[in-house]
Design goal:
single chain, mainly alpha, about 85% helix
Length: about 400
């Protein structure tokens, strides 16, 4: 695997840390800026909305730029807004930096994915995707707990400074490792051509399935703390351990999927999604048993991110003539799920259905995703039969 692909993973690690670290900093931000916890929570929502809206917009704006230039610009803006965020005493300014940072992160993701695939070559697409997505899983295991620790020791601003500082070596490495032009040497397709390619029904259905899978993942992940403390019976000190366990499983899942999905992508997606649906139901049923809960948290982390990696690879396979925009729509679908899943889980909790309810919502979302996959298979078979009929010679009279 080219070194530049790992550099992209490093940059994604810094950005993934920023995306998720606020969960451990909300109280200190609210106290320092004299706002409510709900207002502080909007900083996370603003980032998610910025990612969803920003992915296609920034990718469309920067699609004609040389990829190294685009990556450096997006990463530079991302680091700069964290410096502003660390210095400001205004909630409004901090909220604006989260939106701008999300736009830059979305643009970086879209370009990073297509760059990694181009550098890795057609036979290592899933492995390249796994390295980039792996940056997010490492952020869950290392970056987010480290950000929470920095916030505890030196205040929430220290975590923002740390993200900006980690972005600097990533930018230097990008400058040295990523080629200045288009790494695949292919001509740039027109914007209208790429957008038309994204209107294909099978691609849109795949993006919907991806959003459902991520929605199921983040629905339970967002409410692991009340689940393990009020149902499993662990003390509050176990919460970081359980979250890290999920992150370890996620890293293992993307690594394994990267090695398997290039050869058998359909098997990885089909088996992974089926196991995810069964696993969420099993976790809801056995959450009161500590050993079972820990094992399932690890397993579900591996399955969720492994399956997600294979789905991202499929998106690029279905849109080979629209790589940059395909990457942006995959990023948007990921974040639609990341925003919608916790919202649905919160509705279930608010309805008084108990602390296992978000896990049952995850299982339901996976059933919907499986239905979408079944529809994909049916449409694929129909296309195959149509093509076979066209190729079959006409009978002699």
């Amino acid at each position: 695997m080219p070194f530049a692909v790992y550099v992209l993973g490093l940059a994604v690690f810094a950005q993934g840390t920023s995306e998720f670290m606020l969960s451990g900093l909300l109280s200190s931000i609210a106290g320092d800026l004299h706002v409510s916890l709900a207002a502080a929570g909007l900083l996370t929502s603003a980032f998610a909305v910025g990612m969803v809206a920003g992915a296609p917009l920034t990718a469309l704006a920067g699609r004609t730029w040389p990829r190294r230039r685009a990556l450096l610009l997006f990463l530079g803006v991302f680091a700069a807004v964290h410096v502003v965020g660390a210095l400001t005493s205004s909630y409004g300014v901090l909220l604006a930096t989260r939106v701008v940072g999300a736009l830059a992160n979305a643009g970086f993701w879209a370009v990073a994915l297509v760059t990694a695939l181009a550098l890795a070559g057609p036979h290592r697409r899933a492995r390249a995707t796994a390295v980039v997505v792996g940056g997010v899983t490492v952020a869950c295991v290392v970056g987010v707990p480290a950000g929470a620790l920095l916030g505890e020791l030196w205040g929430w601003r220290a975590a923002f400074w740390a993200v900006a500082l980690v972005s600097v070596p990533a930018a230097v490495a990008l400058l040295a490792a990523v080629p200045g032009g288009r790494p695949d040497g292919a001509p740039q397709a027109g914007a209208r051509s790429e957008l038309r390619a994204l209107a294909r029904p099978r691609l849109l259905l795949t993006l919907l399935v991806m959003a459902l899978v991520q929605g199921a993942t983040f629905c339970t992940f967002s409410y692991l703390e009340p689940l393990v403390t009020r149902v499993t019976g662990f003390g509050a000190g176990w919460v970081p351990v359980v979250l890290a366990l999920f992150g370890v499983g996620s890293f293992a899942g993307v690594t394994l999927a990267g090695r398997l999905a290039d050869a058998r992508p359909d098997a990885v997606i089909g088996l992974g999604m089926t196991a995810l649906a069964a696993g969420w139901a099993a976790l809801a049923l056995t959450a009161g048993h500590p050993a079972a809960a820990l094992a399932l948290v690890l397993l579900q982390g591996a399955l969720a991110f492994g399956t997600g990696t294979a789905l991202i690879t499929r998106v690029f396979h279905l849109a080979p003539d629209a790589p940059t925009m395909a990457g942006s729509f995959a990023t948007a679908a990921f974040n639609v799920g990341a925003a919608t899943g916790p919202w649905l889980g919160g509705l279930a909790l608010g309805a008084g259905l108990g602390f296992r309810a978000p896990v049952w919502v995850s299982a339901l979302l996976m059933c919907l995703a499986l239905a979408g996959t079944a529809a994909l298979s049916v449409s694929s078979d129909a296309v195959g039969r149509t093509l076979s009929a066209r190729r079959r010679p006409a009978p002699e009279r």
